[in-house]
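Two proteins, back to back. First:
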Amino acid sequence: MIPDLSPFLHLRRFVSIAHHVPGRIRLKLDLAALIHLPTVDPAPFVALVGRIQGVKTTRLNAAALTVVVEYDPQLIPAAVWPRLLVADVDEVERVLAAHVV
């Protein structure tokens, strides 16, 4: 089951792809997002990321406001990542449902 992602989907407008090669993506959070973060419980999102097939590791750099995700590009196509930043809720849930165990 996928948790309610609406608090995180709202924050996508503050996220950009800083660097991406198949198998490794660095996501950058804009400083403007910091005002919204205290109102968002990260636990459901963290638990969900841990259940995505193909995600090998995630590393947070709080000082740089970045997250690096290493993943298996055979299981998660590189084109999925930019779609997750712009897709509507239904598409995001479909994509995640296909990859969550």
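And the second protein:
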Amino acid sequence: MTALHTNPLFARLVGAERILVAGAGGGFDIYSGLPVALSLLHQGKEVHLANLSFSTLAGLPAEDWAAPDLAAVTPDSAPHLSYFPERTLARWLRLHGYPSTVYAFPQVGVQPLRAAYRALIDLHRIDAVVLVDGGTDILMRGDEAGLGTPEEDLTSVAALAALDDVPERLVVSVGFGVDAYHGVSHALVLENIAALERDGAYLGAFSIPRATREGALFLEAVAHAQEHTPDRPSIVAGSIAAAVRGAFGDVRFTERTRGSELFVNPLMSLCFAFELRGLADRCLYLDLIEDTHLMRQVHSRIAEFREDLVTRPSRAIPH
């Protein structure tokens, strides 16, 4: 049990020496984990970064592959690609003198992703993993009316859930409210968090203040990513960054959101922390995707699970 003035997430990582911070859902998810990763680096920890990637990894040369389904992305990787969040982050890290390798996993099923995680954990003797979701669909059990886009997130959860020899496996969800665009009921998100609290798997929440060193660096990293990916900037990372800056309401920071109404708010800068094993135990379909090798199998298994399911209806947060 920790004291109120001690953050439970970081308290769980006090004894860890080599920590992997990984983006769960692809795209720019690893940016959502940057404040936690930077804080750990500033505490003197050895920190490695990884991300389930939406980038075109197949064309990387053989020397960029650390293991099957595990690419080691550097600032100089694939200069011809315009969309490559892992390389963009690697370049920003190099600008600031941080270790600048960002590992990338292709979009595969649970079995090959678990093997890739195992290879990375063994390579660096990782003793703690923090899996980060930019959004809240990682918290969906499967019986909600709207799941958002959980396939990549829960593939990552399932891949890590069986790696019981890693002493600490934690999940951070940041960007509360951003998944409303994908049909997620955030009243049900809060209901799920309450259930995780009853199970003992909820580790509390903390904000990313822009007045902190890590908050300021996060804003700089997101701005750098938007500048270097102008055709496909991250709506999630942009929304979280806007919230950290104190913006509110329908904030327009990219043409990608034209025609939709955003609700940027201070809750988007909160990091909700959980034990990964407890989160995995509450997912109703995790066993159904266990033997998958392809991401399309994960999609189809979830769809089959939900065909005859009576779902919990969306609810509004009282106002």
